[in-house]
Amino acid sequence: MAITGKKNLRRKRRGFRAKRKVATQAKPGEKVGTRKDTPETAGPSGEAAEQAARVAGIGKTTVKEAKAVDAADSAAVLGPVQSARQARRIGPFHKDATSRPSSSTSLTTVETITVPANALGANGALRLTLTFQSIGGSSSKEFYILWNGSAVVSHVAPSSHIGASRMEMLLTNDGGASSQEIAGRYENETPTINLTRSTPSADTTSDVDIEVKVRAGGTDGITLNLSVAEFIGTN
User: Fold this and answer.
1) Concatenated DSSP letters for 156-222?
2) What is the 8-class DSSP label of residue 60?
3) pTM for the whole thing?
C-alpha cells in the first residue's frame, strides 16, 4: 500500500507540473489544459474585439481622425442645414485690419463679406463693425452698408467732417430664413450719431453678400481701417 501511495503521489505531481506548463504557454482567453478554441474559450470577437483593441491601443486612431469621424457622424444625424449652422461657431468669421483707401467721386466698394448659406438659421444674428478715417474738407463723405445688394445702413457726412468714424450693423433673422431685422449706427468725432432701422428679406439659405461702399469728392478721401463680422447667435 505504501508503494502504491507513493506512485499515486508522483503521478499527481507530474500531472500538476504538466498543467502548469500548459498554463504558461496558453494564449489569452484559452482554457488551461486545451489548445482548441471553443465558444467558451475563444477570445472576444465583433464589437467586443474592437472595444478590446481600442482599450489596448491596437489600431491607433489619431485625434484628427477621431474628429473627422465625429464630424461625419454629426452630419449624418443633423443633415446639411443643421450641420452648416453648427459649423458656424459664435465669434468672428471675418476680420481685416488692412487699410483700404478711396478718394473716388464714384461709389466705391472697399469690402465684401459673404455670409454662408444656412449659417443664420431661423433666428441667428450677426454684427458688423467698421472703422474709417476721413481726410480733406472740400466735399461730403458718404458711407454705405449693403445687404444682398441693397443699402441698409448709410450716412452722408458734411464736407467739414474729417477724422475717425465708425459704423455698425446688427442683423438677425426674424423667425425665418428670409426675414431680417437690421439696426444700424453711424458715429464720428463731431460728435454725430445716426441710427437706422430696416427690414429686408434676403434668402439666407443661399450665400448672401455684405458690401461696404464709400464716396468722397475732390481731394478728399475715406479709408476703411478695420472690418469685423461676427456671429452672435446661429440658431
Assistant:
1) EE-TT--EEEEEEEEEEE-SSTT-EEEEEEEEETTTEEEEEEE-----TTS-EEEEEEEEE-TT-EE
2) -
3) 0.65
